[in-house]
Amino acid sequence: MQLPGPNAFGPPRDHSTALAVLRRAVELGVNHIDTAGYYGPDIANALIREALHPYPQDLALISKVGSRRDSDGAWLAVGPDQLRADIEANLRTLGVAQLALVNLRIKDSEDPGAVFDERLDVMIKARDDGLIGAIGLSNITREHLLRALDRTEIASVQNPYNLADRSSQPVLDECRDRNIAFVPFFPLGSATAPNNAVLGNPTVLSEATRLNRTPAQIALAWTLNIAPNVLLIPGTSSVTHLEENLAVADIVLADEARADIDVIGQI
């Protein structure tokens, strides 16, 4: 999402750097890249293809459908009848015959009702037709997940989650119990918030100083270890930040710091 221009719209600030980020990620062992046709639109996918095609055999390309962009970059909702075309557009722009997984992105106000069922019908048909390997859900409630599981297998859920926002905890718990991958987005909080409650947290800042790490690394390390089914997708347009993000796997937080962070933002 960070590779195109501001607000995931338009061309990247530096085309060559965007390609370098993608290539360095794969060099360092990343085998799960999260994208969407509406990032750009189509620009993130085009960059991925330019940088990495032909793709490594173990590289999972994960996309999303459920939104589009207009000519000014505004976010537009997508009806069930448009989802299939958007899945096929992702295949074309990425240059693949099948995507490992596609997430169905749900609007904030969408209930787990008839429209959701219609959208899910399209996803099931796309999987059964071989366009996608598995179905994921994004921005959902526990009720969406349970309704979907009554009809089909769900491989992954992408929801907002970070140490200051645990509103998706019921969804995470359900995913953990069912061995479904949970992929937290905004793991460092919103980039548009005037005061970042994640990176500005006193415990995070103190632990960063103690370990000679960045606050972002502390927050990501905590998020990575909240459950065994968590996969991180912190976006970046910087090779340096990419390398910092990947280095969090080696961070061991102090027990006291982890306990303090655990109680932040709990509901």
Q: What this model shows, in words?
A:
By secondary structure, the chain is an alpha/beta fold. The protein has helices spanning 15-27, 43-52, 80-94, 114-128, 142-149, 169-178, 202-211, 215-224, 239-246, 255-262, and strands at residues 32-34, 60-65, 67-69, 75-77, 101-105, 135-138, 156-160, 181-185. It has a domain at 1-154: TIM Barrel. It is 40% helix and 13% strand. It has a 6-stranded parallel beta sheet. A two-stranded antiparallel sheet has the order 3-4. Helix 1 (15-27) crosses helix 2, helix 3 packs parallel to helix 4 and helix 7 crosses helix 8. The radius of gyration is 18 Å and the shape is globular. The chain starts with 14 loop residues before the first helix and ends in a 5-residue tail after the last helix. The mean pLDDT is 95.
